[in-house]
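_Backbone structure tokens_
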Amino acid sequence: MGTLNVPVSEGTRVFLNFSVSLEDGSEVDSNFGGEPVDFVVGDGSLLPGFERLIFGMSPGERQLFTVPPEDAFGQPNDNNVQEIPRSHFDDEVELEIGLVFSFADAGGGELPGLVVSFDDKAVTVDFNHPLAGRTILFDVLIHRVEPTELH
């Protein structure tokens, strides 16, 4: 059976390696050197801004994209910085700026929050995505693209 040369499009299953880096070159995530990941385009596995970039790419193709915050993790939202009464934190916990706590969101999922300041009365926690406001470098290598039943 020969290799299909199907380009990436809505509903195709894509096998790829990727890396996500910041403009200063620091790598945030990468699976280069490991097995490719696979997902169906449009299933919500990949942010829409990243998905749009790989549309039309074919197996064997590699590209480096510069992704502005609006198409990546968004801009920081002041409403996502909350002041929480100090009494909500266990007295045993030694607070420090930069500490990440896991909070329950309205749907029962986990929501990480970063301590940005605190005093005896309150703790200010930032719930923005850690990469909000950052331009992202997205390096992607397409290995295989397969049509799916949905396609």
